[in-house]
Write a structure and sequence with these properties.
This protein is of the alpha/beta class. The protein is built from 12 helices and 10 strands.
């Protein structure tokens, strides 16, 4: 099994266990309409002609191991917000990324920035759970589940007025994402099977489907190291939304690193 397959096997067990401990009816009582705040914030940055950085909070990754030893999710969130991050992406997968759903809840209580709950969503139960914890948006990885489950995840997100990102990695997955006709599309520059990264992935896929993407909110995800990378994507595709994690989280100074991206 590759890394993604291992993660999904573990995630299925986790969700089934959570359903027993935290019944869905109890979780639904604590949900609320999110009013599409995530996409609203990205559109605001576009209209103001500012790069929209979705700054990611994650402690570890399967390929790099622990990214930061003295990990403090609230401190990291505060530094991101102080440096004008458009939105936050919070990794909550436990086993391979050392995430925690509590991170979303803690940050939501303290700050007002829109939050993407980044995890491996395979069951509508998780959408209600993410909403309860304070997330405004969820991630749906096209190649991680079936079309029926994707439709259920989309329907649940719409019911709760949450944004959803359909994440794709290649041309075939882009075709699938476009078939759903709605949602934000995230083009991941990282290959989830071997975790190699190339910004050219966004450019190549965008150019092949450009005519179908004119009215879409698009995010280029992973692999950004400096402002030149953002400019390259913007010039080649017009995309103004960038998900950035490791470059920020591993830097000696988040603030200094952030400013290198936007100044």
């Amino acid at each position: 099994m590759n890394i993604l397959e291992k993660i999904l096997v573990n995630k299925k067990k986790e969700v089934e266990n959570d359903k027993v401990i935290y019944p869905i009816e109890e979780i639904k009582k604590k949900t609320s309409k999110k009013k599409y705040k995530f996409s609203e914030r990205l559109n605001k940055y576009k209209n103001d002609n500012n790069p929209a950085i979705i700054a990611e909070i994650k402690k570890a990754s399967p390929s790099k191991g622990i990214l930061v030893n003295n990990f403090d999710h609230l401190s990291i969130a505060e530094q991101y917000i102080e440096n004008n991050a458009a939105c936050l992406s919070i990794l909550t997968e436990k086993k391979y990324f050392l995430g925690n759903k509590k991170f979303v809840n803690d940050i939501h209580k303290k700050f007002k920035t829109p939050i993407l709950n980044k995890d491996f969503f395979i069951d509508p139960y998780q959408v209600f759970e993410a909403n309860k914890n304070g997330a405004d948006c969820i991630l749906i990885i096209i190649n991680s589940t079936t079309s029926d489950v994707i439709e259920d995840l989309i329907d649940t997100s719409k019911e709760l007025e949450m944004d959803f990102i359909l994440e794709i990695h290649n041309e075939k997955e882009m075709e699938t994402a476009l078939d759903y006709g709605e949602g934000i599309i995230g083009i991941n520059n990282r290959n989830l099977e071997n975790f190699t990264v190339s910004l050219d992935n966004t450019i190549r896929i965008f150019k092949e489907f450009e005519s179908s993407l004119k009215n879409k909110i698009l995010i280029s995800e992973s692999g950004f190291k400096n402002k030149n990378d953002l400019v390259k994507i913007k010039n080649e595709t017009g995309i103004n939304n960038y998900l950035i994690g490791e470059s920020l989280i591993k830097s000696n100074s988040i603030s200094e690193c952030f400013q290198k991206f936007i100044k």
